[in-house]
UniProtKB/TrEMBL annotation:
InterPro entries: Gfo/Idh/MocA-like_OxRdtase_N, Gfo/Idh/MocA_oxidrdct_glycsds, NAD(P)-bd_dom_sf. Pfam families: GFO_IDH_MocA. It comes from Chelativorans salis. Residues 5-114 form the Gfo/Idh/MocA-like oxidoreductase N-terminal domain. This is Gfo/Idh/MocA family oxidoreductase. It comes from the Bacteria. Signal peptide: none annotated.
Amino acid sequence: MTPTRIAVVGVGKIARDQHLPSIARSSAFELAAAVSRHGSVDGVDNFTDIETFLKERRDVPAVALCAPPMPRYDMAVSALKAGRHVLLEKPPGTTVGEVEALTELAREHGVSLFATWHSRFAPAVEPARQWLFGKTIRHVEIVWKEDVRRWHPGQAWIWEAGGFGVFDPGINALSILTAIVPSVFVTGASLEVPENRKMPIGVELSMKSLAGFDVDAVFDWRQEGPQTWEIRIDTDAGALVLADGGSRMSVDGEARPDGLEAEYDGIYERFAALMKAGKSDVDIAPLKLVADAFLVGRQVDVEPFHE
Ligand code: NAP
């Protein structure tokens, strides 16, 4: 099989940590170019803007957009209009409406759009979904607490409008939740916003399912020491705990075998399959929960945050 040429756009933390290594390991893709204003990748064509890349490298049919959500919409529109298949990092957009618009544009141009949710590819997520099958869920509790200074050093965009604040990691929990339990909707939220920032540093979120259970979530960026990314699901057949962001699973305290650790390799496999099948995969369920949290959320001012 001849690998599909792909370009990475936005050479920052996630591009370097995950996308470039996964593309290098993939037999389905071959890195042909990189587009970034400041970053670059050795051994391939480098561009500083996407328009020039799209004009000069018409032989590259796919792009992975790894920039933050705010500049990503315009990049995606340009790439889709130029007939390229597009992979979007999470979150897929700053609003629900723009992601729906991109979905429509991909359909019009007959190309694949893949809105990725990397946490859904974590090794224990699919085993958890399967374990839950046929069981009655009584309650879900999500605790997602990490140290923003450790995971997002110097990332000013994350505090700007459209940058999601603590929902940037929190939406990973919501992407797992919406993949493994029946649909839920937001009933209330409290958003703690530092006086000198635009986006929340802490969130308490209440959700409900038509199936009858409640979901309580806490996202916090002020956690020093051990980090917590945990989802606990109480059922009629025991308590399932997904720990370490979906990497490990236990039932009533007993560890269960999980799948292989291959989040981004799994993402590129899926992108290749979507392109081959001429399909798109855009699930806005996690984004809708965040949007609704901002709609009903009560803002609480908290002390200024300094790096
Ligand atoms: P980052 O380190 O800030 O890198 C993003 C890159 O995008 C920047 O280096 C920048 O490169 C480019 N860019 C283009 N326009 C930009 C703009 N207006 N503002 C800022 N950067 C711009 O961010 P990241 O951590 O890689 O996150 C990027 C996306 O991946 C986010 O949506 C995030 O949620 C997601 N993600 C991140 C992680 C993680 O662990 N960091 C994990 C999973 C997903 P140039 O300046 O060279 O153009």
